[in-house]
Every structure is written in structure tokens, then in C-alpha cells.
Amino acid sequence: MKTLKTFLFTTSTMSLLMGCVNLGHVTNFSKNSIEALQTYGNLSQSFTTICTQDCELKHISNFNVYKTDCECEGNVKADSITTAIYTATVEYLHGLMAVSDKTITKFQTAELTNALATGNYGPIKLNAEDVTSYSKLSSLILKAYSGIRSRKKIKAYVTEGHEPFQHLLHFLEFNLSQNLNGKLEVQKNGIQNFYFDLVQDTNLSSYERTKFAEDYFEKKATIEKYQNELRLFGDLINEVKEGHSLLLKNLDQLTEDEVKGSLGKTAQKLALGARIISQFN
Predict the structure, then answer these.
(1) Residue 268: which H helix or E strand, with range?
(2) How many angstroms separate the CA atoms of 88 and 177, rounded?
(3) Would you say residue 266 has pLDDT above 90?
């Protein structure tokens, strides 16, 4: 009996040690997810820049060079909220790295002290579920940060964080791929209308009309490049969502090769996508 107890104790201890070592694939997934989401900072367009560009085009169309101020306060607030949501998702992943890698002793949470409120903010809307998810995830991250030395268990962290993390990722993806991309589509149509009259103006020379047509196609191609950036970033967000769902589903099998392989493939996709977005500019 004593030998059996010793064997079971040794086996249990080895399993724990192996579990710690094998959580490297969770750390790697977290790291690549962070790097993928951080390409948000490389996106060429924002609500504010599009608002300013549209405003300037309107002034040009009206031959106006006086009183050219642009009213973009709502878009500035929309960008601020989008950035706050993005920051919360990245900091959650920093927390996931910390609870899966005991060599990490701290991570930054300075940007999580701002509270969000429901309402309409220019082109975006925050509802109660958005605000609640942000609050829940922020609280979880701060708790993990304050207790980092005692090592909050990864199972509890992922289980508690999954729902608000997924919701905020969905908000971020929808806000960029639908709201921001929609504004780019409107901008593209506006530019087409602006150049149409110029290209069709027979009072202009063929050279001038050709140059206007060239300008139009160049601007159209630039906008479509921005839209492709947003599409690819949306794909990365969805990869992170799927990877975290896989993690939640397999919390009791984290050391199995199949789980390691699946998370590893997701990490590779994220790394590749991040490199592609970084090369857009």
C-alpha cells in the first residue's frame, strides 16, 4: 500500500510538472494572439480620419477654402471606445500568458481604469451587454494582476473570461468590418460621384479628363486596400475567437498532443496574418 501511495504521489507530481511545462503552447497562442491584435495599430484608417477626409472632399467640391473646420467629435469618441475595447482584449491575453507561464511576473493594466457607458457615439453604439462585458473582463484582468504571484489557475481564468472576451472580440470585429468598412464604402461612392462630373465634362481637354480618371482609380484602389486590411484584421480576430473556444473546450486536456497541435496551428495562422497586415504600409 505504501509503495502504491508513493507511486500515485510521484505520478501526480510528475503530471503537475509536465502540465506546467506543456502550457508553453498556451503561452505561445496568447503571444501570437497579442501580436495579431496589435496590428490594430497598423490599420491605415479610423473613424476620425475618414470623417476628416470626407469633410475635406466636401469643401473641395464646394470650392471652399474658408471656414473649413470639420465636425468629427463623434468619430473621435468612436475611435476612443474602439481602442478601449481593443486594449481590454489584448490585456486579457497578457493575463492568459501570465497564468500559463510562471516566469512572467507582471503585465500592464494602466488602460483598464476607464469606464464605458451605454449610448450612441457617432457611428457606433454601446449597449448594456457591451459595457457589462468590458467591465467583467477588466475586473478579471485586474484580479489576475493583483494575485499574479499566487497564480490564479488557468482553468478559472479562461472559464470566467471566455464569454466577455468573445463578446468584446465580436464587438471589435463588427465595429471595424461593418461600421468602419461601411464608411469606406460610402467614401468610395462619394469619390466616384465627385470624379464622374469632371471626367464627363467636355469643356475639359482629353488630357485633363484622363488625369481625373487616373486619379479616381488610384483613390479607389487605395480605399479598397484599406478595406482589405480591415477584412484581414477581422479574420485574425475570428482566429483568436476560435482558438480561445478551443482552449475553453479542452481545459482538462491541455497537455494532449491533439490540443497542442490545434493551438499551434492557430498560432501559426495568427503570426502569418500579423506579418501580412504589417506589410500593407
Answers:
(1) helix 257-278
(2) 19
(3) no
